[in-house]
C-alpha cells in the first residue's frame, strides 16, 4: 500500500535538494563576475549580491527540513531574481 507520508517526505526532500542546487549555482555565479561588471550593468554591487546569496545558502542548510518557510522563500526569490535578471546582464557585458 502506498504511504502518503513517505511520498510527501520524498517530495519535500527533492524540493529541498533542488532549491539547494539553485542557491549554490547562484552563489558561485555571483563570485565569478567583478564588481565593475555589476556597476556597469546597473545592479547592486558584488558584495551585496554575494551576501544575499550566501545568506540564502546558509539559511537553506541551517533551516533544513522546512524549505518553504518565509526566510527560505524570500532568499529563494532573491536567488531566482539573480539568475533571471542580474546574471544575464552581467554575462552580456563579459562575452568573450
Description:
This protein has four helices and no strands. 80% of the residues lie in helices and 0% in strands. The longest helix is centred in the first third of the chain and has 29 residues, at 4-32. The chain has one domain (4-93). The chain is mostly helical. The relative contact order is 0.17. The mean pLDDT is 90.
Key terms for this structure?
elongated, mainly alpha, single chain
Summarize the structure.
The protein has 96 residues and is mainly alpha-helical. The chain has helices spanning 4-32, 35-41, 46-62, 70-93.
How many strands appear in the DSSP assignment? 0
Structural class: mainly alpha
- The helix fraction, in percent, is over 70%
Distance between the termini: 56 Å
List low-confidence stretches: none
String of helices and strands: HHHH
What's the total helix number?
4
Give a quick account of the main beta sheet: strands, pairing sense, barrel closure: none
- Radius of gyration over alpha carbons? 16 Å
**Portion in strands:** under 5%
The oligomeric state is single chain
Mean pLDDT: 90
Number of domains: 1
Give the CA-based shape. elongated
Topology:
Elements: H1 4-32, H2 35-41, H3 46-62, H4 70-93
Helix pairs in contact: 1-3, 1-4, 2-4, 3-4
Amino acid at each position: 500500500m502506498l504511504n502518503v507520508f513517505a511520498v510527501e517526505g520524498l517530495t519535500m526532500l527533492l524540493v529541498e535538494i533542488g532549491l539547494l542546487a539553485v542557491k549554490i549555482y547562484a552563489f558561485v555565479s555571483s563570485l565569478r563576475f567583478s564588481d565593475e561588471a555589476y556597476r556597469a550593468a546597473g545592479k547592486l554591487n558584488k558584495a551585496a549580491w554575494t551576501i544575499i546569496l550566501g545568506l540564502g545558502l546558509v539559511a537553506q542548510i541551517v533551516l533544513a527540513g522546512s524549505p518553504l518557510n518565509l526566510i527560505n522563500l524570500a532568499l529563494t526569490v532573491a536567488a531566482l531574481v539573480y539568475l533571471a535578471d542580474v546574471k544575464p546582464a552581467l554575462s552580456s557585458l563579459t562575452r568573450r
